[in-house]
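Support request from a user on the community tier.

User writes: "When I paste my structure tokens into the form, the page sometimes reloads and wipes my input. The last time it worked, I copied everything first. Here is what I submitted, just in case something in the input itself triggers the reload:"
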């Protein structure tokens, strides 16, 4: 088990939620809330201490798109690429953010401050094109405004 995973937190989650296979989704959700992703080592630990198997847990974690099996940055930056945002220039926003962050879509910055990802739709079509940083929505953007979001986050020190 990785030194970075607190086994007691994992065991506490299992004790609180339950050990039978019907609790797989809530357990994985709680794990992800705690660690920001579902580490494979945690799946192994859950299987050791419950009635769930590694293959059941892994199957659930890979079936549902809400679960992440890789670490993510402290801030998740989602660029909407739905129809309205696409027409409004979402590709340019992604390119501007890639340039500003020095990473490609789907990657984390080396310091793990940011994860950049394209998403199908965030449901804010009237504000297109849209970027979300965690739960905060930024609308009516262009390339310059998108890059400025990162500048503002850095200035505010909101990444740590």
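"...and here is what came back when it finally went through:"
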């Amino acid at each position: 088990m990785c030194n970075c995973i607190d086994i007691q937190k994992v065991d506490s989650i299992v004790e609180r939620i339950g050990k039978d296979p019907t609790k797989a989704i809530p357990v994985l959700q709680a794990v992800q809330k705690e660690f920001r992703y579902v580490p494979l080592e945690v799946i192994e630990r859950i299987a050791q201490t419950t009635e769930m198997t590694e293959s059941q847990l892994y199957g659930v974690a890979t079936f549902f798109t809400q679960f992440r099996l890789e670490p993510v940055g402290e801030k998740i930056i989602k660029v909407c690429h739905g129809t309205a945002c696409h027409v409004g220039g979402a590709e340019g926003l992604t390119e501007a953010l890639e340039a500003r962050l020095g990473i490609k879509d789907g990657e984390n910055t080396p310091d793990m401050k940011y994860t950049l990802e394209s998403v199908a739709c965030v449901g804010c079509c009237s504000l297109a094109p849209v970027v979300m940083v965690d739960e905060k929505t930024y609308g009516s953007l262009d390339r310059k405004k998108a890059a400025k979001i990162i500048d503002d986050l850095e200035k505010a020190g909101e990444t740590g």
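Agent notes: The reload is a front-end session timeout and is unrelated to the input. The radius of gyration is 18 Å. Helices lie at 7-17, 24-35, 40-49, 54-63, 83-88, 90-101, 143-156. Escalated to web team.
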